[in-house]
Structures are given as C-alpha cells and as structure tokens.
Write a structure and sequence with these properties.
Length: 1011
Amino acid sequence: MNAILIKLFATALTLSQVTTRPDAVRTQFDPATDGPEVVRLLRDGCAHMRKAFDIEDINLDELITTAMEDPSSVAGPSAPKILHGLDLNELNTSYKQFCKAENPPNSPFDAKAVIEFYDNATKDLPSAEALRDKALPGMTRILDGAGKPFAEASEPNGRRIVVPITTVPTLVQKAFIAAEDKRFESHHGIDERGVIRAFIGNLASPGRPAGGSTITQQVVKNLSVGDDVTYERKIREMIVASRLERILTKPQILGLYLNGIYLGRGAYGIEMAAESYFGKPVGQLTLPEAALLAGMPKGPNFYSPDKYPDRARERRAYVLARLKEEGTITEAEMNAAIKADLGLKPIETARRDSGFYLADFLNREARTFAGVDSLTSGSMTVRSAINAGLQRAVEEALQDGLANYERATGRQTYTGPELNLADSVRRIQAATPAPEGSPQAAPGVTGARSDAVKPDAKTLKAEKAAAAPAPKPAWLRALESARPVLYDVRWPMAVVLETGRGAVRVGLADGRIASLDPGIARGRLQPYDVVRVKLSGGKGGLRAQIRVRPTVQGAALVLENQTGRILAMAGGFSYPLSQLNRVTQTVRQPGSTLKPLTYLAALNAGLQPNTLVLDSPVTLPPIGAAGDSWSPKNYEGGGSGPTTLRRGLEFSKNLVTARLLQGGIAPKAPASLKRVCDIALEAQIYAECEPYYPFVLGAQPVRMLDLAGFYAAVANEGARPAPYALESVERDGKALYTHAAREPVRIGSADRVAFYQLKTMLQGVTQHGTAAALAKFSPYVAGKTGTSENENDAWFAGLTNEITVVVWVGYDNADGSRKTLGRGQTGGHVSVPIASAILQAAWANGVAKTPLRGPSSEARPFIADMAVDPRSGVRVAGGGFLEHFRTSGDGKMADTQYRLVPRETLYAMRPDAEDGDLNGGEDGASVTGDYYGNMTGERARPDLLDPFGERPAAPRSRRAQGDLDPYGQDPYRDSYKPWPGQTTRTPFGDDEVRRPRRRDPDYLFGEDPGY
C-alpha cells in the first residue's frame, strides 16, 4: 500500500471517529483482528461527510472529480511535498470503496498497515484535562521602587499578558472567529467540511497548503501536541481537540486561543499584541485595529504590517468583509475601516540591559513568599524595592572596577571580539540598491524653480531622493540589528572600520567615528570586529580605549538600613557569562570585614575606644584538649607595640584583634571567642559558628547578603533589618503576596552604646585607616576593608545613615583552585574604589547624603565625649581628638585605658632615647615618636578632630592606601595631626593656639591637665 495512502487513511480513520462517535474514540486497534471494524468506521465517516456537504448543496463527487482532472497538480513538482508520490488511481479507487459502497477487486487498502500507523501516532496521547487546567506562561512586569517599569520576565515564546475572555470585547472575538473559524460556535472541535475543503483545495491548487484547523485544533496544536507538519500530529490534534470540546465551554476555548496565539512583534496573546502594535489594552481596540490583529494568526510574518503593509491591509480587508457577511458590522463601517490608516506605534527596539541578577533573586523570593512556581508561570505584576538608576550605576561601577584592576596588574587577556559583522554587512550591501544619480539642473535655472518650469517625473523623484536623509551605512545598520553577547555590559559597542598602520578607527551605535587605542588587542583586530570601548573627548576628536571582559569576578550590594530594602545588586561581572549570584548564592572568607564583631564584643564588655592593647606576638591556648594553640601574625609580620583599641581597628591589626580574646572580652580566650560567635549568630551572619580562633579574622566564609545585614545594624545602633527585594506580587488584580513592613530586630548581645562606639571607630577607617581613599567622604561614611589569606578575596563593607554598601572582588574557585589577586591587592586597593563610585551614584539617585548621626536619645545619656591624644588615647585638657566614652548614666566613666596593658608594662617598653629626641629618619628629616612607637613631627600627617563634625578631608599619600589586612596595616600611614604646637579646632568650634610643650621621655602616666 502506498505510504501516503496509509497516512491519509489513518487520518481519515481519526476524522471518522471524532465526527461520528466523539464520545468513544478508540486510540488503539489490533492489526490482526480489527480490520473489519476499521473498514466500518471509514465508511461511516464518509457517509457523514457526504451528508454534511449535502446540507450546503455541494456535490462532493464533483469536487473530487474536478480536483483529479489535472494529475500533475498532485504528483507534479509543484505539488505540496506531503503529497508527492500519491497515486491518483489508488486514491480514486479507495474513495469508491469507502464512500460509494463499491468493492473493487484491485483495492489498495491494507487495514493492517493503516492500523499500525494509527496506533503509533496515538501513543502517549496528551490529555485534554491538562489543557483545561493549564496556566499559560505569561510575561510578568517588574516595577522598580518608584512604581515604574523596570523589567519583563517571560519564558521563550511566552511574552504574553493573560486576560479573562470576559475582558475581550465581543467585536474582537467575532473578528477572530470570522477570520479563522466561521463555524466555531456550531462544530464540536473538528470542522469536517473545513478539513475536506482544505484537502481538496490542496489537491487542486499546489500553492501554499491550507490546514483546515478549527480554533480548538489550533489551541491543541499551540499548547499541547506541537506544530510538526506531519500526519501524526494531525491525528493527535483532532482527537485531543474533540475531547477538549467536551470539557470546556466555547468561551473558555476561545480564551485559551486568544491568549495563546503568536501575533508578531514578539507578542503572544491578544493583550500583549494590542499593547505592542497600538499601545493600548485589548478593551480599547477599534474596528480596524481588531481586524488587523485578527488577520495575523494565518501568518504573523507574512502579513506583518511592519514589513509588508500592503499585505496587512489586504488581509485586514478580508477580515472586515467576513465581519460584514456575518452581519457584525455594516457596509459603511467596513468601508471606513478599510480606508483607515494602520495606526501602528513604533516598534520598541530598546532591550533590557540591567538587573538580571536582581530579577533572578525576585523570582526566588516569589517562589518562597508568593507561592508561585516562577514569575513566568503567569502574567503578574511584581513591585520591587529596586532603585533603577542606582542599579545601572552599581553594575557599571563593578564592571569598571574589575577591568581597572586587571589593567593595573597586567592581568588583561584579549580572547577575541564579541561579534564580527562582516557577513551582515555584506548581506546588507547586496540587498541595498545603488542610489540613482542626481540629474543636472536645467540651464539657466538656479535657486527656486520658476512656476513656468514643469519638471518631469524623473526630476521630481531625483529631487525627492536628494532631499531625503542620507541612508545609514551598512556597518551601522548591521550594528543596530546585532544582538550583543554581553547584553548587560555598560561599555558601548564599536565596529572596527579601519585597521591600518595609523590609528584604528571604529564606528559607534550613534553613527559617530572614533579613533581607537587597541591596547592589548593591537595587531589582532579585523574589519567589522565588534569590541567594547570607553569613550573620551579631546582636541583630536572622539577617542576610544578598548575594554576587554575580565576573568576576575566581583559582586556588589546596596541595602537600605532601616527597612532592609535591596536597592541594587550585582551578582557578577555579566549575567550572560555566569548566572551565579555571588551576593546570595556563594560564601567567601570575609577577612577583616568580620573584625568589628570582636571589637563590638570588647566594647560591650566595658572596654573603651582608648583602651590600650599590645600589638605584639601572642599565642592563644588550645580550645579543648585536642585543639591546637594559635599564633597569628600581622600582614607586615611585626607589631607596633601598645596601641589603642580604635587604632587597632582603623589599621586592621590582627594581633590586636587576637589579644582582645585574651581578657578583653572574657577572662579566658575560648569564652571570649564564644561571645563573639554569639553576636555573629544573633546578627544572622552565620547559621552556625566554627569554634576556632581564626574565626575572628574572617576565616569562616560568609554570604555577602548576611554580612550587609550586620553593617546595617551598626548604622542602626544594633537593629538588624531583614534584607528583601520583593514588595508585592499581583495576578489578575489580586494580591498574591505583600511584604509586611517590619521593624529591624535588635541584636541583644551588645547594647546601643557599644554599637555607636563601633560606628565611630569604623568612621576612622574611612578617615585615615585602611579605607583612607574614602577620606573626603568620611563625614558621611564608615566602614571596614577586608582581605582573606593570600589576597584571595578583597572586601569593603561601608555604611551611611541611610544605606549599607558591600563590595567583593576575587576569582571564582568552583574548580577547586584558589587564585590570588596578587600581593598588595587588598580590599582598600581593589574594592574601596568600586564602593566609592557606588556611594556617589547612590547620592545622585535619590539617597540622602547626611553626616553620620550622633548617638540616639537612648544611648546619649550613657556617652561622654572627651578629648584625647589620638595616638596614646590619653585625655588632654584642650584640643585633641574627641573620643566617645561609655558612662554609667550618672556621668561616671570606667577608665579602662590600662586594663589590658598596665602602666608598668608601658614603662618597661619605653624607648631608650637621649634627651627625649628620636632622630634618624631615612631621609634625614627630623622624626619624633611618642612612647607607643607612633610617628610625630614633620612627616606626620594632619588629622581631624570630631569624627562627626564638618571638617576638611585628610590628604592622602602618593602611595596607594591599600588595606593590608587580615594581617594588619602599616601603622605609619595614618593621617593624625601632631597636636603640640599646632593651631587646632576644638570640639566647640573655636580655634586655640597652644604653646609648644616639652615632653619628658620618662613621663608615662597620661596628659595631666594641670601639667
């Protein structure tokens, strides 16, 4: 039996069942025994078809005879591919056998072959019930914190907004029914007349084949069985469509259809199409607009009004004529609609280029809190906390910072262009007709044309062409249509146009030409390569510098302190390169950004910021019988002797941090460690704490999001917010989830006074410590740098009154390797510049810029501000540095300055200097030092007095202010001003001129105000 005939009979068997016995369709037959049953079903089906055509007074025999008069139309080269090889005689014989009750002796029919094909086609048939309960994937709109559109989330082929059928106007419904399925209201899923008409039409007309599918069949095809152009798909489609009609109403089926179909411009469903083409919801469509969209399902590309407006008008006129035939509209309405302009709004070509990590995070939050499978499981409206302008700026700052690090360290590698447009340019050039030459002006005619001169049509056409704007060059058109690989990278794309020995020239997306410094790509660029650049102006014109994607990674987060709202998040350099969100999905060693926990515990235990601690080697005893002792080291390897608690944090001294465990928090080191761990657990930095000493130096990996919550708590005097980005989720106007406003939870392991003192000490870090690159912002910013062992991770965590900013830079170590950033590439050197750009962007995008607040009304009664020498911590009568001391509430203050380093120890450690002078600087300059080994004299740098007052920024050294923790910072690279003999500004704002005073080298008991 002919293969095509087998498929046709299997399809006919399906059609016979769904039209004559839709409630009892068999999907499997026995090839050995069910042959007679199949013959009976085929004959019943043919009888049903003839009756159906008789209703319309159509002679089916004549239709078939007419179709078969020209055999070449079926078997010839122009026939549809699915009909090639069909024997017309066999087809005609089969028709007589099953439709005219004849028993021809040469029947080609083989029941066994037909059954086998049919049984195979109906295996694993999808259920109609699945369609009844199917939730169409939809496009979710994500709004930013200001309620403005920020992003869309949809699955491939799922950019739709699902609307109830009741919101679709009757006119729109009837337009689609008239265009696609005029008997929709009367058939039961399969329009047998439509199927036979399509089959016969395809035999007689070898053009574009017709399908004869009903709206119900199209629903099944689009949402269930797929769109393969095969007999198997057609068989499955008809059976499922027949069953769907039994469990859904016509309006429900039409709703699935109108929400499911593709209508061009990337729009699925009638609502998305109405907005894409006309900028309005479906409920506001006019008659011409509804007819235009109703004509699109037949071929969204073929009838595209953007590409083929004439075809679109013709198709619209057909739909309008059908509506008039059905009596839905009048002839006058039809004629007016035919003449109407297409009325399209411009195509939106802008592509989303930011917030991809944040959108993923919102999706995870929606699954957790709103109970939705994903943001693409339906059409929803998601309101987020995102500050859109800040989000873009954070991504740009991180990308620039990572690239600058690699350029500065010589680690850049050029792996080739992002794209090459040579093929696209050639195609565009080949498809662009050569411009016609402009005709010469008529002799004696200049300026305006005389009314007496009648130009011919050719002249008018040439003049019109000359007046039109110059066509875009092929490279620019190719660039406009290119889809960048790194679609979220802020650096503009540029097309290489010239690569001669001189300057390389590139074209930009706005049509400008720039001179490119190829840098690391010198000699490797080819014509029409697309590269990323950084632009700058100059006397020589527009200049560009190449930018290559870095291999180093990073992450950044901006958190609102009081509410916990995530304002911006960058989980990596570029989302297309890696979807791993390093803010929420990875843990890394925080290094010294965790040290404030230990200092907080010490302050809460009663130590004051001026308490002296020995910056010298220490060995802590084992924890438990099986533990090991611990002997940490500073970054530079040595120590600077006695130093204040404040300076130990400002310059990130490991030895100072370790010694706080030895009596500074609890009498014994293990008990001190436990108290630090308790704060870490209550602050929700960790779910569990590793009981080993290196924990206090940041050895236990942490998640950036959790670390940010702790620093926000420091800004809030101990109240930790719960970070979140999802404000609400709505579907069909109903709220699925709304974030309940919650007050930050107070961390009870430390009081407000300790948190406030810690904040002032962290401000010293940005003023003159390891984050001194932020000195000009120190009135507004406090923070801490951090660098893990071997410079594998570089951190900065900073806070203002309003926000917390955390930045991490490092290499991914998923392959098990740990790659260092390089000697000296610390948090202060790598991460602080990125944080600086983010802070400035925050202030430029609506975040208030306010001086750091003083103590709260609850903490103020327990704090006394007193002037101290900034190095020794000794109280002074006037001037000095305004330190913040804990009191008992009645004004009494516990003096803990010598609790950890007794005076006797200081005496034994005094420098052996003659006449009180310490001379011998390397450059010959006079260098004096106090008894703590801290530099004073001509080489000392100016400092600020009140850490919360308005004052000038401390000057920076010409050498980079790198953060050298977790093992400490060069103690001589500070910016404290030598107080004796200087004009200083007192805490009360008046200037005081102090006389030079003689210092006795043996005086070890503080600065007596009466001295």
